[in-house]
Structures are given as C-alpha cells and as structure tokens.
Design brief:
Layout: E1 13-16, E2 19-22, H1 23-27, E3 31-37, H2 43-61, E4 64-70, H3 74-88, E5 96-98, H4 103-107, E6 132-136, E7 142-147, H5 156-171, E8 174-175, E9 186-188, H6 194-200, E10 206-209, E11 212-215
Parallel strand pairs: 3-4, 4-5
Antiparallel strand pairs: 1-2, 3-6, 6-7, 8-9, 9-11, 10-11
Length: 219
C-alpha cells in the first residue's frame, strides 16, 4: 500500500549522484517529484529516465524539483547514465538516490519492512514494487501517488497534467474535470457555497446540476 495523499512525505538522508541530501531540506519551498525504479540497467526505466531528462524544462517551469531512486548504489547510477545518454539521447540531469539499504523504499511503503539482502543479488523482480511516483508540495505533503508495474512505462505527459491540476487547485478553490488541460474550464469546489461563489465569480457559472458548477480556469 503506497503512502496516502495528504500524508507528510517521510524525511530522510541519502546519498545521491549529486551528493548527500536531507530530503525536506532539498525540497525547500519547491514542489518535488520522487520517482522510483526497481534496479539499474532495466529497459523500461532506461526510457523513463531519459524522458524525464528531456522534459526537465517543463518541470522547471512549474517549480518542480526532480529526484529519482533506484535500489542500487550511486556508482552504478553513474554508469547507467552513460547507457541512458547513448540510447535516449540525454542523460539524467537531476539527482538519483542510491537506496542500497532499502531505507527510502521502506519509508514510502514501496518494499515490506522485512525486505533485506545484498542489493547486488536482488533482481528487478525482487524489487518490482519500487515503481511509484510521488508528487510532494512545498508543505511536504504528498499530493499525488501513482504506482506502475515494471512492464508499463510511465506517462510523464499525464504526470505534468496532474501537476498543473494540483498546483491550480492548491491556489484556487476549484477542481479539474476528467481529461482537463491547462486553459480549459474547471469546477467550483464543493467546499465553496453558492453565496461564496457569487463573490468569487460575479459573472456566474454554468450548472447542469446544482453540484456541478463550471467556470473558466482562474488566472
């Protein structure tokens, strides 16, 4: 069972490809995306790490720091980066955590508490559940958690869309409908009464049902 949305993201210290960090300090006042991998030199993850590196300007634009994790040592991450650059055209341009003691994987409920053994002898299948994406806000709360099987590459365009929604709804008292994209209409949150909504949206709203109040995306 992954960490619940709204829970405080566990803090930790870890070695990364860019030096040792304390996670909450590293996040600072930014948003952060932590995405995990069961083992280095695995095929689907190779494509994912390259994709995220290419999309880094989009995450930067949204004020989202990127950090990867794999249950392997940092020196292997650096070797893997060469393969990623060769096959994907770009190497990771963000830190990668070396979680050789499974500390972070266990903290985030990606591996059971009794997981143990030599990481070099564990297979990707042993670590198959270390395939989760966590979006963490500046308040260090988990805003989004997605778990994927090893055979399904993650859709980072969807993750960017979800970030846009999370950041919009953190700022305004709205929700986003199915398949929403930037610039499209949104829904007034259920926590906003009609009287409050009249103050916030003096031009009114469309309401095909009393509980479904549709307005243009706030600026």
């Amino acid at each position: 069972m992954t960490m619940q949305i709204g829970a405080t993201a566990p803090d930790f210290e870890a070695e990364t490809t860019e030096g040792r960090i304390r996670f909450h300090d590293w996040i600072g006042n930014s948003w952060a995306l932590l995405f995990s991998h069961p083992k280095d030199f695995t095929p689907v993850c190779t494509t994912e790490l390259g994709t995220v590196a290419r999309l880094k300007p989009e995450f930067d634009k949204r004020g989202v720091k990127l950090i990867g994790l794999s249950v392997d040592p940092v020196d292997r991450h650096s070797l893997w980066a060469n393969d990623i650059k060769e096959t994907q055209g770009v190497a990771p341009n963000y830190p990668m955590i070396g979680d050789t003691d499974f500390k972070v994987a266990k903290l985030y409920n990606m591996l059971p508490a009794d997981a143990e053994g030599d990481v070099a002898k564990r297979t990707a299948a042993d670590n198959a559940t270390v395939r989760t994406v966590f979006l963490i806000g500046p308040d260090k709360k988990i805003k989004l958690a997605l778990a994927y099987p090893m055979t399904t590459g993650r859709n980072f365009d969807e993750i960017l869309r979800a970030i846009d929604s999370a950041q919009l709804t953190a700022k305004h008292r709205v929700a986003t409908p199915a398949n929403w994209k930037q610039g499209e209409d949104v829904i007034i949150a259920g926590s906003v009464s009609d009287d409050e909504a009249k103050t916030i949206y003096p031009a009114g709203w469309k309401a095909p049902k009393p509980y479904l109040r549709i307005v243009p995306q706030p600026k």
